[in-house]
Amino acid sequence: RSEQSSYNWRISMEPFILHNLDIRMSTDENKASLPAYDHTKLSAINTCPTWGILRYSLHRRMPGAGREMALEAGAAAHESFAALKWFQYYSRQADTEAKKSLAETEGSRIFGVDRFNEMRQVIDGSKTDRTNAINFCLEALYTSGFYDDPRDTRRTISNLSEGIICYIDSYDLDKYTIYENKHRIGVEIAFDLTVSVEWEMNKDPKVTVGRFTGKMDGLLYNKDKLMIWEDKTGARIDDAWLSQWIMSHQITGYCLAASAFTGEECLQALVSGMKVPIAKNPSDTIRKEMVNRSYDPFILQWANWFVHSVEMDQLYIDHIEQAPKYTHSCNRYFRPCSFVPYCTADTDEKSQIVTEMEIDEWSPLTGE
């Protein structure tokens, strides 16, 4: 009788070990030589590597793709959120000629010179702060370029206007202080950082380097503690909505960016959500939650996630046809992924399909 034997090879898999995380402002050399990664791009790669790399690394879009109303409406609302924070600085902190000049300069940076001058016309010194804030923020919405789509009755100018008024009424102009330095106020702060991660897995030391880019909605002081403020819009802002921000790498990344930008520790974060359309009870339209950070687990896990996502991108960007396809995301937001025709094509056809796609470059630094 022949006897069979087996041996179970047990490989000792050590977890991700972070040795050093260095984040600093990118130099011109960094910008020329290193690929850029923002939260949207990194999250897309994790949602599905094929989709994320095609859309955000290769900047491809299928021809004839329709409007993305949720993104467009959110971007338009953010124009008003930024306007309110600018108005807060202007009405509460710009108490010297130098600060008034800074407020004017920053208004032009945030909204563009011509548009900002048009928006400024609605501020009337004889009116109350509430009236001026509403007029100024609605003017930001009306000049944002957003327009209604007859197929979407929820994300409309009218519904956004009602939500923004609720947002203004829930906002305390005196509770927090807008960050300021000689050149910037803490509103719509774009950043371009170089991230160097020294890490180890299975006793194999590695270094991953890439640029991390993005734009912080707000940078304020909560008493003497630096705090990021992140605005969101959504169809619902219940506890399920909140849970996604408790661990969100976006919030952690922005805290790291704020620390690098200011040279001050930033571990406090506030997420503000606005429901579109407004709730039956207008007071339920806005929800604000503190989602503070710490090294363990938040920063440690962000570094792990950054390395994993960047390594995935660098592995497949030149071999997109071989990238994994996470089929759970073929249907997102109640409609099929636009790249399904690419994914279902024969391997020989894929290269031709890519060349026929539109080029549409996304940049968080410009909002395009």
Keywords:
alpha+beta; eight-stranded mixed sheet; single chain; 368 residues
How would you describe this structure to a colleague?
Helix content is 43%, strand content 21%. Helix 2 packs across helix 11 and helix 6 packs antiparallel against helix 7. Strands 1, 2, 4, 5, 6, 7, 8 and 9 form an eight-stranded mixed β-sheet that branches. A two-stranded antiparallel ribbon has the order 3-12. The chain has a two-stranded antiparallel sheet with strand order 10-11. It is built from 13 helices and twelve strands. It has helices spanning 28-33, 39-47, 49-57, 69-93, 97-111, 113-120, 129-142, 157-170, 239-246, 249-262, 295-316, 340-343, 347-356, and strands spanning 17-25, 36-38, 60-61, 177-178, 187-201, 204-222, 225-234, 268-275, 286-290, 331-332, 335-336, 358-359. It is α+β, with helices and mostly antiparallel strands.
Map the helices and strands:
Blueprint: E1 17-25, H1 28-33, E2 36-38, H2 39-47, H3 49-57, E3 60-61, H4 69-93, H5 97-111, H6 113-120, H7 129-142, H8 157-170, E4 177-178, E5 187-201, E6 204-222, E7 225-234, H9 239-246, H10 249-262, E8 268-275, E9 286-290, H11 295-316, E10 331-332, E11 335-336, H12 340-343, H13 347-356, E12 358-359
Parallel strand pairs: 2-6, 7-8
Antiparallel strand pairs: 1-5, 3-12, 4-6, 5-6, 6-7, 8-9, 10-11
Helix pairs in contact: 2-3, 2-11, 4-5, 4-7, 4-8, 5-6, 6-7, 7-8, 10-11
